[in-house]
Specification:
mainly beta; five-stranded mixed beta sheet; 1 helix; 3% helix
Length: 140
């Protein structure tokens, strides 16, 4: 199941050690179910969040790089050679959740997913850093 979270007013103040970063509070960690994707809209940018059973959380662009459809949160979480992956629900390309690298192009040219840093605050809030998008470095 995919739920949409709109966090337009959830920007957190940046601690001094995070200069240049744009952390946005998304949701409590408990709102994310292990091995399932969740779509969120952060400052108008659609992302897909994935929580693993070991409590790690990954954030990638919601747009499938091959179809352009906003569906990555519906992808299947898995692994390949020790790397955590998500399979696109559209054309079944396999992407590394940590790097965005396409590990199986299914015969097409290689494309990548934009990835975003994620951290969990002491209170269990999931935060995503959108500074890459703000600097115009989002991969399409």
């Amino acid at each position: 199941m995919t739920i949409a979270l709109d966090t337009r007013s959830a920007t957190r103040e940046r601690p001094s050690e995070d200069a240049g970063q744009h952390w946005i509070a998304v949701c409590p960690l408990d709102a994310l179910h292990p091995e399932r994707g969740v779509a969120a809209i952060l400052d108008g940018t659609q992302i897909a969040l994935f929580r693993l059973r070991d409590e790690r959380v990954f954030a990638v662009q919601q747009a499938d790089p091959y179809s352009g459809s906003q569906v990555m949160s519906r992808g299947l979480v898995g692994s390949r050679s020790g790397r955590v992956t998500v399979a696109s629900p559209m054309f079944k390309q396999i992407f590394d959740l940590a790097t965005g690298e396409c590990l199986d192009t299914v015969g097409k040219d290689a494309r990548t997913l934009a990835t975003y840093p994620v951290r969990i605050d002491d209170d269990g809030t999931v935060l995503v850093d959108l500074s890459l998008r703000l600097e115009g470095r989002q991969t399409r």
